[in-house]
């Protein structure tokens, strides 16, 4: 068989040379135009649901937020797995879909089921979908440290300075803040003084 191919190629040298030139030109063109990905995206289609429940312990977050969300998302069509992670004041639920599922279809289904369960979650829980990024989208993780800086001060620097600077970088989908203490302002009323000024609550 190989001998016949060699004999045919020798008889039609011009055709073989033309084919080789065509393959060479096509290869150069593909090399210049083909998108190159440093880390090929082989991950499943997934939607991340982030919930903030300020001031609550991980066990409370697990019982009142993560577990209800996980059980709700198990009934979403084409779902392959649902994973939950509870931390101090926050919850992450990863809804993983079957191969070939469109990302935006998956996000709309998760949002639909999230709206259905929102009324059964505690009133202080703030829930939102993560960015429409893939599973390999978590590119960089860093920590803010500084001598003499309290955790709430570091969190404020992260939320109001570092975060916005990083979000302005092209290609960055989201900058997620974890840890520290979110600074809160509380107003304590003195009923006796309010009464003296004639102000009612």
Integer average pLDDT: 86
- The amount of helix comes to 40-55%
- CATH architecture term of the largest domain: 2-Layer Sandwich
Overall CATH class of the largest domain: Alpha Beta
Give the tally of structural domains.
3
* Percent in strands: 5-15%
**Main sheet overview:** 4 strands, antiparallel
From the N-terminal CA to the C-terminal CA, the straight-line distance is: 97 Å
Give the overall shape: elongated
Helix and strand run: HHEHEEHEHH
Q: What is the tally of helical segments?
A: 6
**CA-atom Rg in angstroms:** 28 Å
Find the CATH superfamily of the largest domain: Multidrug efflux transporter AcrB pore domain
Main-sheet strand order equals: 2-3-1-4
How does the helix and strand content classify structurally?
alpha+beta
CATH T-level fold name of the largest domain: Alpha-Beta Plaits
Enumerate the spans where pLDDT stays under 50 for 5 or more consecutive residues.
none
- Total E-strand runs: 4
Describe the overall structure:
With 201 residues, the protein is of the alpha+beta class. It has three domains: 2-33; 46-136, Multidrug efflux transporter AcrB pore domain (Alpha-Beta Plaits, 2-Layer Sandwich); 140-201, no CATH class. 42% of the residues lie in helices and 14% in strands. The protein has six helices and four strands; from the N terminus they run ααβαββαβαα. The chain has helices spanning 2-11, 13-33, 58-73, 103-117, 151-167, 191-196, and strands at residues 46-52, 79-87, 90-97, 126-129. It has a four-stranded antiparallel beta sheet. Strand 2 and strand 3 (90-97) form a beta hairpin. Helix 3 packs across helix 4. The termini are far apart.
